[in-house]
Automatic annotation (TrEMBL):
This is Putative circularly permuted ATP-grasp superfamily protein. InterPro entries: ATP-dep_Glu-Cys_Ligase-2, CP_ATPgrasp_2, UCP005522. Residues 73-448 form the Circularly permuted ATP-grasp type domain.
Length: 472
């Protein structure tokens, strides 16, 4: 997969500008460098003013920093987006059906499509959810699916984020910034809007409220202002026009959740939680958690409140389950997967493990339950010592790891100190599931700003771009 030069989003193999980038290329030719530099500075100042920062753990420099924003958009033509959208909806529908199944009839395990131990012994599997019915049978109401392009431009799903996917506030703020700085660019072509995402999110959340209420009360549950994504929690609550609450602002009485307000208790029907399962209810999970709400689980079990995303969704986005998603799609939907997985070696299998141990310097090895670009080995850039350490870890606990080829991620023109240069990108579209499943056109494009780097995570020095889906 990595034998070709990376797929270039803007230029074809002969160096010609792809049609969907032509208006942007013409604008770049007509715009003076000084004006672009000035606009880049303006963008940086605005982001500082809005306070969009990202807490970086383990850094001495005070912990908070701005995620760099690049003003060259990532542009996706209408035809390509149509396929991506269909593939994303298909995938998330199958993942929700899988979650409902493993907490109910477990047909997929009975048929041996997925090894039982991978699910039932998974640290994210919540036996307490067994037999609990959820509105519309939806577990992951908000999914962030990471997509990469490799080879000759084929799209692959790199991973599924179904617990508390973040980053959507950057998608919205990046668009706002581009429209403010470069209105003339939007006049040259028809870019699908994204600013209705908060309205769609609210609609999705209200569609899964209990008891068929007309306007269920929704609240966003945050662990608090020290959290790395707190800006986003506050931003989304404000954009949806709902309350932002912490665990201590809620209490449960008679399996019903209430919010403390200055006018007395107010019932809450839907909670968009941004706290991990373990910390949500000290009566059921971690007794030492001060972030959650005692009794929340029993309120969910009684159908008196809907939690988005639900308890127990993490088992479906675990990297050890990821290789089986194409089989899930076939099993539940009787359809072929529209979007491909990255070829994946399952190290619990002897043949796969032998191959990986012989080719560690060529592969990416990931911890099945790791996240954020940590706990992984990127073979081609790793030292001999790092490779040796991973070899020993794999030999000791092979089932904890998966391995994949090193993908040569596609590149996108990006403003760097020396001018404009190609940098590797990925894409995280956001899929909303309530009474129906929808995707906002585009998503968050993350860009690896260091030359040659393939790590796009903001926690490891990546930046973001506006993603334009052209309307057909």
């Amino acid at each position: 997969m990595s034998s070709h030069p990376p797929y270039d989003e803007m230029y074809d193999a002969e160096g010609h500008i792809r049609a969907h980038y032509a208006p942007f290329a013409a604008w770049m030719d007509d715009t003076q460098d000084a004006r672009i530099a000035q606009k880049r500075r303006q963008a940086e100042i605005s982001f500082h003013r809005v306070g969009i920062t990202f807490a970086v753990y383990g850094e001495e420099s005070g912990g908070e920093r701005l995620i760099p924003f690049d003003i060259a958009p990532r542009i996706i033509p209408a035809g390509e987006w149509k396929v991506l959208e269909a593939g994303l909806i298909q995938r998330v529908r199958a993942l929700n059906m899988f979650l409902h199944d493993i907490y109910h009839g477990r047909r997929i395990l009975e048929f041996g499509v997925i090894p039982e131990s991978l699910v039932l012994r998974n640290s994210q599997y919540r036996p307490q959810m067994q037999g609990i019915d959820l509105p519309n049978e939806v577990y992951a109401h908000i999914a962030g699916i990471d997509i990469v392009r490799a080879g000759q431009g084929e799209y692959y799903v790199l991973e599924d984020n179904l617990r508390v996917p973040s980053g959507v506030s950057y998608m919205l703020e990046n668009r706002k910034m581009m429209m403010r700085l470069f209105p003339e660019l939007f006049a040259t072509q028809s870019v699908a809007p994204v600013e209705h995402y908060p309205a769609l999110l609210l609609e999705t959340l209200q569609s899964v409220g209990p008891e068929g209420l007309d306007e269920p009360v929704v609240a966003v549950l945050t662990p608090g202002s020290f959290n790395s994504a707190y800006f986003e929690h506050a931003f989304l609550a404000q954009q949806m026009g709902v309350e932002l609450v912490e665990g201590q602002d809620l209490f449960v009485r008679d399996d019903t959740v209430y919010m403390r307000t200055t006018r007395g208790p107010r019932r809450v029907h839907v909670i968009y939680r941004r706290i991990d399962d373990d910390f949500l209810d000290p009566q059921v999970f971690r007794p030492d958690s001060v972030l959650g709400v005692p009794g929340l689980f029993s309120a969910v079990a009684a159908g008196r409140v809907t939690l988005a995303n639900s308890f127990g969704t993490g088992v479906a986005d675990d990297k050890s389950i990821y290789p089986y998603v194409p089989e899930m799609i076939r099993f539940y939907l009787s359809e072929d997967p529209i979007l491909l997985n990255v070829p994946t070696y399952r190290l619990r299998h002897d043949d796969d493990r032998k191959y990986v141990l012989d080719h560690l310097e060529e592969l990416v090895v990931k911890e099945a339950q790791g996240a954020g670009g940590y706990g992984m080995l990127i073979g081609p850039t790793a030292s001999k010592a790092e490779i040796e350490t991973f070899r020993q870890q794999i030999l000791a606990e092979p089932e904890r790891y998966i391995a994949q080829p090193t993908l040569s991620l596609s590149t996108c023109p990006t403003f760097v100190d020396s001018g404009v240069a190609p940098r590797h990108v990925d894409l995280r579209p956001y899929v909303l599931s309530g009474s129906e499943t929808m995707v906002v056109p585009g998503g968050l494009t993350r860009v690896a700003l260091r030359e040659g780097s393939l790590v796009v995570n903001s926690s490891q020095g990546g930046g973001t771009k506006d993603t334009w889906v052209l309307e057909g």
